[in-house]
Amino acid sequence: MKQSKIIEELKGYISREILDGKDIGLDKSTPLLEWGIINSMEIARIVSFIQSRFHVGIPDDKILPEYFMNLTAISGLVVKLTR
Amino acid sequence: MNRTIVSLPPISADLLLLHAPAIFDFRKRRDIYFPFLGTSGDVPITPLYEYFPLGFKTLERFLSDRGHDVKLINLSTLLLRYPKLNFDELIEAFDTKLIGIDLHWMVHVQGSMAVAERIKQIRKEVRVIFGGISSTYYSNEIIKYPYIDMVMRGYDTHVPMSSLLKTIKQDGDLKTIPNLLWKSKDGQIYDNGFSYTPTTFGLGVDWSNQPEKPATQTLPINEFISFVSAGCKNHCRWCGGSREAFRRIFKEERSVINKPLTAIDYEFDTLKKLKGVDRYHFYSVGSYNLSERSLDALLNRIEESILGSVSYEQHCLTSDSVLKRMVQANKRTIITLSPESHDLKVAKLAGRGVYTNEDLERWIKKALNYGIYQIDIWYFIGMPEQDEKSVMETIDYCQRLLEMFKGSPVQPMVCPMIPFLDPGSTLFEYPEKHGYRVFYRTAEDHRRGMERASIINRINYETKWLSRSDLVYVGFKAVRRLMEAKSETGYLPSNWCKDYIAKIDDALDFIGVVHEVDCLEDEKERTQELFKLGTEILRRNNIILYSGVMNQAFPVNRQIGGRWFDELGWDPSVLEAA
Questions:
Q1: Looking at the partner chain, which of B276, B331, B490 has a beta carbon nearest the beta carbon of A52?
Q2: Which of A68, B252, B373, B374 satisfies CB 3.0 to 4.6 Å to B332 for a cystine?
Q3: What is the mean predicted confidence (pLDDT) over B233-256?
Q4: A-chain residues within 8 Å CB-CB of B331?
């Protein structure tokens, strides 16, 4: 799956489930952790979503800020783990 | 390249408040096993219980405002982060006449006493004072230990502690300090009575400065807590902070002593200065004790703040109007409920049981509709009339909740009440009446108990329905099954659950090995056999203690440091070099 497609799906999920439909201008480089959009609670939900949607398990040693800082980083991790 | 080793520079204070690890010195103990899941609950701590009482923070502020130099050191965190520190050198670096050690939660009894003992061995001239709920409860016993000079009793000791520091500075008469139990140089014990019982509790914590976060790669733990009262209006029979326990321990008619609203205002004012406050989680402890007016004031302050998320502990099912108000105050509102058991009879005997499962389910739907962000539901193991079947039915019920609210943030959790039933709680005071048996009655019993190799033998109680061994095995099995349910329902990523379960299984296997040896009757044989296991115990302990912290809510290790209670005393660069 293309990274851009993953970004779109993640963006939809976060907008719908975490931001409750609120439009904050979320894009691929929005700093998710720095702006407090996601924290550990949401990360668990996002990882579950990734597992069910893309069939990719994110191991706990990859639950690091560098992989969850924005949509590009998360999608990059998904792509990397798919290979 | 060789590193230059430098000793720690002195840390000077009028009062140095130390928080000891549950076991000292955990770094060397090859004869005590700390299994995975050895701490229950969702607090991000290791089995050393790094949490210190919030009173440390308020004492620091109150005494500093009155011209006293107070410093905090969390020895537990310090020794976890810098395991090669020489503890005796650390003690040598204390430039103070008075060291305060908390014995608030009984689980710290061994560590607090071992630290006090070592301090007195090296620094006879330094006086050691104990404080906290357990210190108050056991004051008459612990003052007799040669390494404890004073015990400050009470739920709010700010004023007496200020008097004490002033008196020590002026070399005055300690007989004037209320609530103090103390020893003279010749070992004579004096009881100054327990007359300082203020009508309000504590003062606000200055949250504007948080301990420095480590240069970490893992996710930070951004959380702080706030107590709104001492004591409680409810009577949970297992709890050492319940209405009846509070009256018993503090000899009080009242059961709830509230924090003044000005103190809550102060805390929120300091929060405005905290960098990145929008990424912090605020946990309001015992918010069910608030009056309507106080709750309204708290919610107003929360609404004005930009906190990342807020948790409220609730005893009853929160009313519609309050739920709406909570969501209005913060969009990420989390409600924490603790029904303790799905079985209403067990829940009532525990001191809860104020709503049925049907009530709960209807309420959850409503709360989610109002926009409540997450609902945490806690179940407890070790309650009256709760047997293994009942525990497993509770897990079945948790599974029902997970399925019923699939895709929603409804999170059931379960934990065994280990290692201790709180001294002062109704079940501890009247065990036979409630079907309990208490193994450790005195502080010394508990201290020795904590030194047992096996977590099963460290537990201070059992019930007619669950033996000490059951509390561990049934408890771990229950958490295991709940993790499976969370994996099956997609609540948590299945690979995380799989890893978590593997850790439980490994712990259960090794608990059995250690327990068998720890139960050998012949002391010499037991010591020898434990010695043989020592390398393996130490290896496993090191994994549990030094890998970071994880819990049921977020089963991923996060590095220790930067939590509100991670006070190191020295600058990290100094500690790195030492």
A1: B490
A2: B373
A3: 93
A4: 20
Q: Answer whether B499 touches A (CB < 8 Å).
A: yes
pLDDT digits (tens, 9 = 90+) for B280-297: 999 998 888 988 888 999
What's the Rg (C-alpha) of chain B?
A: 23
pLDDT tens-place string over residues B425-445: 999 999 999 999 999 999 999
Enumerate the residues of chain B whose CB falls inside 8 A of the CB of residue A40. Answer: 219, 553-554, 556, 558
pLDDT at B3: 45
Tell me whether residues B217 and A65 touch, CB distance under 8 A. yes
Place of tokens 């709750």: B295
Query: β-pairing, B374-381 with B410-416?
Result: parallel
Distances from the Cα of B171 to the Cαs of B31, B100, B103, B188, B271, in angstroms?
44, 18, 26, 18, 38
Chain center to CA of B373? 25
Query: Coil, helix or strand for B313?
Result: strand
Is A60 close to B371, i.e. CB distance below 8 A? Answer: no
B467-488 CB burial, b ≥16 within 10 A, e <16: ebbbbbbbbbbbbbbbbbbbbe
Residue that the structure tokens 């783990």 belong to: A81
Question: How many angstroms separate the Cα of B262 from the Cα of each of B59, B184, B200, B265, B417?
Answer: 17, 39, 11, 5, 35
Q: How confident is the model at residue B52 (pLDDT cuts 50, 70, 90)?
A: very high
Q: Which residue has the higher pLDDT, B573 or B359?
A: B359
Write down the domain spans for chain A.
Answer: 3-82
pLDDT in tens, B460-477: 999 999 999 999 999 999
Q: Which of B139, B116, B254, B121 is nearest to B190 (CA)?
A: B139
Q: Please tell me the distance in Å from A4's CA to the nearest CA on chain B.
A: 23
| Lookup: tokens for A18 | 């975490």
Cα distance from A15 to chain B (closest Cα, Å)?
A: 14
> CB of B275 within 8 Å of any CB in chain A?
no
**Any A CB within 8 A of B406 CB:** no
Question: Nearest Cβ partner of A39 from B308, B492, B493?
Answer: B308
CATH code assigned to A3-82: 1.10.1200.10
Cβ–Cβ pairs < 8 A, chains A and B: 70
* Structural domain B11-199+563-577, CATH architecture: 3-Layer(aba) Sandwich (3.40)
Please give chain A's pLDDT, 83 residues, in tens.
799 999 999 999 999 988 888 878 899 999 999 888 998 889 999 999 999 999 999 998 899 999 999 999 999 999 999 98
pLDDT in tens, B498-531: 999 999 999 999 999 999 999 999 999 999 999 9
- Residues of chain A with Cβ-Cβ distance to B409 below 8 Å are 41, 45
Query: Quick check: A41 and B374 CB within 8 A?
Result: yes
